Amino acid sequence: MLKINEKILIVLITMSILSANTALAQKDGDALRTYSPYTLYGIGDMYRPGSVANKGMGGLTYGVRDPLGINSYNPAALSIQDSLVVLLDFAAGSKNTYSKSLSGTTSANAFYFDYVDFSLRIAPDLTINVGLSPVSDIGYDIERKESDPNLIYEQGDIKYSYAGEGGINQLHWGAGYKLFSKFSVGVNMHYYFGSINRYYSTEHTTSSDFSNIFSDSKTKISKIGFTFGAQFHTRLSNTTFLTLGAIYQPKTILPSRKETTTITVSDIATDTARKVTSQVKDIFMPETFGIGFTLRKADKLVIGADYSYQNWEGFNFDGTSNNYSFSAGKSHIYNVGFEYTPKINNMKNNFLRWNYRAGLRYVSTFMNCNGQNIKEQSLFFGVGIPLTRRFGSKINAAFEVGQRGTTKNGLVKETFVTFSIGINIFDIWFQKFQFN
User: Fold this and answer.
1) Angstrom distances, CA of residue 281 to CA of 249, 252, 278, 295
2) pTM of the model
3) How far apart are CA 138 and CA 218, in angstroms?
4) What is the CATH number of domain 4-428?
5) How far is it, in rounded angstroms, from Cα 185 to Cα 179?
6) Mean of the pLDDT values across residues 268-279?
7) Rounded to an integer, what distance in angstroms lies between the CA atom of residue 359 and that of residue 427?
């Protein structure tokens, strides 16, 4: 075994590499995690929580309680970790999106680092966790030509361009504590950080008598927030266990600094540039409630369901184009899933030791566009592949296929396919050996 200080160094190097790649992805337009016109709104696509193992089960998190995996999204689940065990979980993913509207079709793909999590038990019944993961992502590039015949007659052809990139990440520190034999509590502290960059232009392509306008805005976000979790866990029979879980995240205002630069270019007047710095007060992480349960049958079967609610009312963030109307409402998310392991202790046939997972997710999103509430449906499949016979290290993979939106009222219907792969490293530290 490695010495403890060497293991700590490996953990820190891994987290530094993934942190650097996440930061680069925020700055490089070719490294977008998502590509969707729906990221015109608010703070973009909201990241669906969960490890790769969770994602394989449809995104279940609130009632998941696994001694061999990290569930940082309900910090109360951390308390199940053994006193000698340390866990490191990190993942990468890819997303392919196919978009369809009444005017045509497009496609885009992205590859990205997903998350990194590390957990360690530091006292009886108390486990701590630190990790890095995305919160939201923005990525779009849209062009529209003026269709009003009167305006075209007066000013000639006009092209409108809208583009955006960036998003919000979070560095989280968590702790889970077994308060009673059947009841655990936990808390996560999140440091939200990132930037949202949007670009807009109006260009007269057939006339030089009118000014062209180019504008870009950069909104920087930095704030601390909290999530509180609880789990009730009990044995229903010799081989059947029930876990009920819940989380609550208070509304967190994200006071932000926004810099907007507008350049006016004209052939008949002097070009001008204007830079304005302002404080944005209406960006926030919404109040969130989540509840869920899992039933575990020995080491063979886990089934469960989650529900979460978010209130985005009052959120007002610019970035919409003038051919869409947008309002923010309430979001409802439903998840169901299962995991099946044929024979976990079979050493002759590795396929019988694999974890086979599947699940469903339905989302009524916070976005109301052109009078339509945007909905999303996804189907998941996943697998967990043990790397060793003795300990719980494994490779986890998850596959998702889903749809979002509609072609009604000039909107876009998206079909997306995501693939996630992660490594969950399980190791024993602080063990005293009687023989060297």
Assistant:
1) 19, 11, 10, 43
2) 0.86
3) 13
4) 2.40.160.60
5) 7
6) 78
7) 29
